[in-house]
C-alpha cells in the first residue's frame, strides 16, 4: 500500500493509504486523530470538516492521496500547545454551544474558516455558512451565539443564557 | 443567588474541554488490537422469503474471517420486547420473534441477512457483495389501513394478523364518552398524521465486541443510552451470558434522542461473533445504514374529536389512532402509543371524559419506537391542534379557550389514570404572553402584510409525564423491567468524591450538573466531585437515560446516597469532636458542634474514615461509600406554553419561523444554562418535524428519504434564536430535589405551535384551510392555499 505524507497540525506525518482511502479515514485510522468525526456518507453533515491548506474541507469528500504534501489542521490542532482553548473553542464552552460533542469538531473548524473569511459576520451570515454542518442537539441557538461571541460581537442581547 | 457551582448555577460544562479539543472517546474511536470488522448484508426488499444463501464465493474472498447467517443463530434467543401491552379484550399483544439475523424471511429494507467478518471494513463489504441470496419477493405491507384489511399479506406468517393490539383506554369510559360526544353542543373533529421521523443522533451506531477466552468474559462497547438495560436484555434473553461475565460499556455517545435506548441486533451479533471468531469484532453504521436500522419514531394516524358546551368547556375527548410498529417490536415500542400517549390526553385541561383507542400495526418498515418525547408529542400535537380548530370554529380566542379549561387545582387526578402533583398553567401562559409579546402581534402582522407575507401566531400548551417511572406501576402496565435508578457515592480518603450513576450522559451534561448537587449538599467545591457513568463494570445497576428521567430518578438516588454519606460522616465527626451526633451540623464543608466553636473539616472526617486510628470502630465500619436505589412514587409533570410566529410566502408556500418562545415549568433547576440548551434542542427537533422531516416509504416499502440528501434535517438557517424561560417553577412534590426533567419538553411542545401558526396565517389571509399534515413543506402549504 502506498504511503501518503502531509503536514497535520504542524507535524510531518506519513501513513499507508489505499487509493480509495478518504482523508477522514486517513486521519482517524491512519493517524489516530479521532477528533475528526464521520456522521454521514453523503458529505452533508460536516462533522468531518478540517482545514486543508487553509480552506475548510469535508474530509470525507477528499481522498487522502489528494492531500499529499498539504498542510492540514484538525480539531486536535486548534488549542494552544499548553491546552488553552482558542477563542472559538472557549466561546463554545462559555455559551454552551455543544451538547453531545459529536458535531462539535466540524462546527469549530467551520466557524474558524468563517471568521477567517468574515471576521464579524451577521447572524444570518453565520446561519448561512453553517448550512453544511448539522447539529441535532442544540437547535443551533448557542452555536450561532458562540460564533458571534467569538467574533467579538456583543451577544448579551440574545435571549437566554 | 445560587452559590458558585451549586444548585441553580449556570456552571460551564467540564466535559466540553475534551469534546472541543477532539479528545472525546466515542465508540468508533475504540480500536482493539487484532479486531476484525463486520459488514451486514441487508435486505434491499421490504418483504421476501429466503430460499437459499450461498456464501461459498464470498468466503473465499481476501481477508474474510467468517460469514454468519440466520442458521448460525438457530436456538439462540431473538431480540426481546421489553413491554407487553394487554389489549382491550384482556388479551396480550401479538408478539413476533425478532431474530438477530433473518431466518426464513426478510421483513423490511435493512433487515440483516448475513454478516461478514473480515480483516478490514473494505474486505468485509466486498465479500458481502459476493454473497448470493435466492429470495422470493413478497407483497410489501406499508400502509397501516391496508395492513389491517381483510386478507392482507401478513408480515409474520405465524401471527393471526398484522394487528399487534387493539388498546382501549380507559375502556370503562368508552360508552360515557360516546354519549357525551353524541349529546354535545359542539364537536370538533380532526384527522391528522404524526409523521414518521428518524432520530438521527449525529453519531451513527457502533458496536465493538470483545471476548477473553481465558476468563470467559465478554465486553461490548456500544452507543447506548443505558448500558445495564443492554446487559440485561442481551445477556439474559439473547445470548445467555451471565451478568458477571458480560460488561457493557457506553463511552461518550454522540446523541441518542431515544434511538439508542433499544437493544439492537448488531450489539448481539458483535458480542456473539467475538467469541465465535475469538477476536474483537467491530461494526460502525454508515448513515445510510442508520436510516434503515435505527428505530424510527412517531408514525401515527389519528382521528380526534373534542366535545364542547356553549361556553367552550371541554366535555369529552375521543381518539382513534393507528400506530405503526414496523416489522418487529423494538424494545419499548408497544408502550409508546399506549401508556406514554393515552395517559397524556388530558393535557393541561380538565376534560372529564376521555377515551383513547389505539391499534398498533405491523408493516414491512423499520421498527418504530421511542423518539424524543415518545407518545407525548403525539398526544400533545393532536390535542393542541383540535383545541385550536375548536377555537376557530367557535369564534373564540385560542388562548382564552385554553385558559378556560386549564386544570387549576393540584393534585389533579385525570380521567386517564395519572395524577398531576403540581403545576401552574396560568402562570406559564402569562409568562408566555409576556416573553412572546403576544399583545404586539397585530403590529407585526401589519408589517408582514406590508412586506407581502402572511403572518400567523400559533400558541399551545403541553404536559408530559417524565421521570419514568414507579416500577410497581409500570409493572402492572406491562413493563418487563424495573424503572428505578441507582447511584454509588464513593468518598475518597482526601475528601474528593466519585459518583457512579446509572444514568448516561450523551449530551445532557451530567458530568457538570450532577456534581453541583453533591457539592451543594456537602458544601465543597464541585471540582472535588466526578461522575462516572456508562460502564456496567463500574456503576451500580441503573436503568439509564430516557424519558427526561436522569435528574428526577438517578439524581434522586444520588441525593439519597449522599444523605447516607453525610449521616455516616456526622457520626465520625461526632466521635472526632467528642460530641453528640445529634449536635453535629455540616455547612460549607465544615462539621461543627451546634452552639460551640468546635469544628472539623470534611477532609478530616474522610481521612479518618480511611485511616481509622481514632474512629468508633465498634459502632461503624471504616470507609465512606454508599449506594442508593431510588424508585419514584409518581411520574413528574413538566408543563408549559409555547408560541410560534411564522411568515408564509404566498407565492411559494415557504414557511419562515420568525420567532419561537417557550415558557416551561420544570420545577427546581440545577443548571439553567443546560436546561436552556435542552429546550433549544427540543424546539429545533420539533420545528424539524413540523416543517422539514419525513421518513417516506413508497408502496414497495422502499425508504425514499434514506439519507441527508432526502431527509431534511433542520439546519442553522431554518431556525431563529429562541426565547425560553423557566422562571415558573412548581417543584415536584415527591422527589428530594423537586425536579421534573427537561429533556423532551421542547420536542413535545413545539410542533403544534408551528402548525397552529401556519393555519393562523392562512386563515387571516382568508384561506379556507383548517389543517395541513406535517411536514409543512412549501409544496403542501402552497397546495393547501391554492386548493
Spans of at least 5 consecutive residues with low confidence of chain B: none
Task: Spell the H/E element sequence of chain A.
Answer: EEHEEEHHHH
Output the strand order for the largest sheet of chain B.
3-5-1-13-10-11-12
CATH-wise, what's the superfamily of the largest domain in chain B? Aldehyde oxidase/xanthine dehydrogenase, molybdopterin binding domain
Give the terminus-to-terminus CA distance of chain A. 52 Å
- Per CATH, the superfamily of the largest domain in chain A is Beta-grasp domain
CATH architecture name of the largest domain in chain B? 2-Layer Sandwich
Strand content of chain B: 15-25%
Mean pLDDT of chain B: 97
Strand fraction of chain A equals 5-15%
As for the number of domains of chain B, it is: 3
**Largest β sheet strand count, sense and barrel closure of chain B:** 7 strands, mixed
Portion of residues within helices of chain B:
25-40%
User: How are the strands of the largest sheet of chain A arranged?
Assistant: 2-1-5-3-4
Radius of gyration of chain A, whole Å: 16 Å
- What characteristic shape of chain B results from the CA principal axes? globular
Shape of chain A: elongated
| Low confidence ranges of chain A | none
Please report the two chains with the greatest interface, counting residues with C-beta closer than 8 angstroms to the partner's C-beta.
Answer: A-B, 62 and 62 residues
Q: Termini of chain B, distance in Å?
A: 56 Å
Question: What's the domain count of chain A?
Answer: 2
EC number (chain B): 1.2.7.4
Keywords (chain B): Molybdenum, Oxidoreductase
Enzyme class (chain B): oxidoreductase
InterPro entries (chain B): Ald_Oxase/Xan_DH_a/b, Ald_Oxase/Xan_DH_a/b_sf, Ald_Oxase/xanthine_DH-like, AldOxase/xan_DH_MoCoBD1, AldOxase/xan_DH_MoCoBD2, AldOxase/xan_DH_Mopterin-bd_sf
